[in-house]
Write a structure and sequence with these properties.
Number of strands: 9
Oligomer: single chain
Number of helices: 8
Shape: globular
CATH topology of the largest domain: Protein Transport Mog1p, Chain A
CATH architecture of the largest domain: 3-Layer(aba) Sandwich
Number of domains: 2
Distance between the termini: 90 Å
Strand content: 25-35%
Order of helices and strands: HHEEEHHHEHHEEEEHE
Strand order of the largest sheet: 2-3-4-8-7-6-5
Helix content: 25-40%
Largest sheet: 7 strands, antiparallel
Structural class: alpha+beta
């Protein structure tokens, strides 16, 4: 007697399903797309966090102590592996630039803006008022900050073993800022009149400081503003510490010196 199991003749048959190469490609592409969307979302979140003023200021304060005349607010801050970058701007604005209509708002504070003026035509057609308001707000710009401070703290690589080696600690200027400051990175807008090097104290060590003086054009059609830039690098606690002070206005030189001398590495 045959004891082996057998399928009844009337049992439903289930044919084997074979995944085609195109379905495999579609599944793979879908997975890659989901990963890309996730990474893009993380990138946008990280970028938003980098420009958050409170986070930027906290990052800067973790790099160094500093004092900026007139108060300061965070502009940009991020952590890159073991390194940190931060930009701080002064709350005080350049007075000379504020007088230029190409830099600051074109609507005087004493005169109602176009969006605030109500006429019989506007009341009859509310769309007119909204268009005027939109046009008025689009012409408003903010005068540049008097002072901007760029700070970076980067771990020293294992190959850099000689503390006295200038090659180990010197960092290419264009790696961080290609122009005058973080806010004004177009090098053609910064007209350098003179460059000199002075020895000043940074992180408890006297280091050469590159000082550039000149003028900066902050907006098309606006007059140039006196500009001064201090930059220095040094070693501090197994890190390369970079400080760049950019100052604008008639007091630019004094502001740059004051901010630079206030730096205390952490």
């Amino acid at each position: 007697m045959d004891s082996s199991p057998h399928t009844p003749p009337d049992a439903p048959q289930h044919p084997k399903y074979t995944v085609s190469i195109w379905e495999t490609i579609a599944i793979t592409a879908g997975a890659v797309l989901l990963v890309a969307i996730g990474l893009a979302g993380l990138g946008v979140k990280a970028l938003n966090n980098a420009f958050d003023p409170r986070r930027a200021q906290a990052t800067a304060q973790s790099i160094a102590n500093y004092q900026i005349p007139g108060g300061a607010q965070g502009v940009f801050g991020t952590n890159l592996g073991g390194g940190k970058l931060a930009v701080i701007g002064s709350l005080r604005r350049v007075q000379s630039a504020a007088q230029s209509p190409a830099v600051q708002s074109t609507v005087p504070s004493e005169v109602p803006s176009a969006g605030a003026v109500s006429t019989a035509s506007d009341r009859a057609n509310p769309a007119n008022s909204s268009v005027l308001s939109s046009n008025a707000s689009s012409t408003e710009t903010v005068a540049p900050a008097e002072t901007e401070l760029f700070l970076a703290r980067i771990p020293i690589t294992e190959g850099a073993t000689d503390p006295s080696s200038e090659e180990d600690i010197t960092i290419n200027n264009s790696f961080f800022l290609s122009g005058f400051s973080f806010s004004y990175q177009d090098s053609s807008d910064f007209q350098i009149h003179s460059t000199r090097v002075e020895n000043r104290v940074l992180c408890g060590t006297r280091v050469p400081v590159t000082i550039q003086t000149g003028s900066l054009i902050v907006a098309e059609g606006s007059p140039p503003i006196p500009a001064v830039r201090y930059q220095a690098e040094t070693r501090f606690k197994e890190h390369t510490f970079v400080a760049i002070v950019s100052a604008l206005g008639d007091r630019a030189e004094n502001l740059a010196v004051q901010v630079f001398d206030s730096l205390g590495c952490r």
